[in-house]
């Protein structure tokens, strides 16, 4: 499987990877504005909420993805973590994962790619327990696009907004814990 590196990718991204034993992360592409590279979506109290990482000003659209720099002009990390706590603080598994995730909202990463890769390894391998190998591409190959949408699962604000599909993996992780991976293999009821 060959996929672009998103920021805390949507559930469908993980569903596409789960049954594979090897993931090639596209490391040689050029940054694509308006993509999931620097944003993710969570279920907030008022519905779907976008979390976007600001980038250092410049023309990123033609810049290699590994050279895109994160901007720290505004306290985006504090805002993101506050939004995540507000959205998922009462989720069944928030306390199980918050302490491992929080340091990523305190550390200053220079490059977006490095932040995204570190978060991917944390969630996919360490927290969900995927046993495959993550490798970086050495030349540009158009990446596959995630297509597999797993079935529904309980969400924090589902009674208010209905089920919100294909949010960031944080939604599944905080709402279902490691059991969420059963959705990827069709074991969940």
Provide a descriptive summary of the structure in words.
By secondary structure, the protein is an alpha/beta fold. The chain has one domain. It contains 7 helices and 5 strands. The chain has helices spanning 11-18, 76-88, 94-101, 112-127, 158-161, 169-176, 182-185, and strands at residues 2-4, 22-26, 39-44, 47-52, 133-136. The strands form 2 sheets. It has a 3-stranded parallel beta sheet with strand order 1-2-5, with no helix packed on it. The longest helix has 16 residues, at 112-127. The chain starts with a strand and ends with a helix. The mean pLDDT is 92.
Features:
32% helix; two-stranded antiparallel sheet; 3-stranded parallel sheet; alpha/beta; 189 residues; single chain
H/E order of the elements? EHEEEHHHEHHH
First CA to last CA: what distance? Answer: 27 Å
Unreliable sequence segments: none
Oligomer: single chain
Structural class: alpha/beta
Strand order of the largest sheet: 1-2-5
**Residue share in helix:** 25-40%
Q: Tell me about the biggest sheet?
A: 3 strands, parallel
The gyration radius over C-alpha positions equals 16 Å
Count of alpha and pi helical runs: 7
Q: Beta-strand percentage?
A: 5-15%
Q: Identify the overall geometry.
A: globular
Counted up, domains total: 1
Mean pLDDT, all residues = 92
**Beta-strand segment tally:** 5
């Amino acid at each position: 499987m060959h996929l672009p590196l998103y920021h805390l990718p949507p559930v469908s991204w993980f569903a596409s990877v789960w049954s594979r034993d090897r993931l090639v992360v596209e490391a040689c592409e050029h940054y694509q504005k308006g993509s999931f590279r620097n944003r993710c979506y969570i279920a907030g109290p008022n519905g779907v909420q976008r979390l976007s990482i600001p980038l250092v000003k410049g023309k990123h659209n033609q810049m290699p993805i590994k050279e895109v720099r994160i901007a720290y002009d505004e306290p985006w990390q504090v805002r993101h973590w506050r939004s995540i706590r507000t959205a998922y603080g009462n989720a069944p598994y928030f306390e199980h994962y918050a302490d491992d995730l929080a340091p990523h909202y305190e550390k200053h990463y220079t490059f977006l790619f490095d932040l995204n890769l570190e978060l991917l390894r944390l969630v996919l391998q360490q927290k969900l327990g995927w046993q495959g190998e993550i490798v970086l591409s050495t030349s540009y190959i158009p990446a596959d696009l995630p297509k597999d949408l797993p079935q529904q699962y309980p969400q924090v604000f589902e009674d208010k907004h209905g089920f919100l599909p294909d949010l960031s993996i944080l939604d599944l992780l905080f709402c279902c814990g490691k059991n969420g991976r059963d959705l990827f293999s069709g074991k969940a009821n």
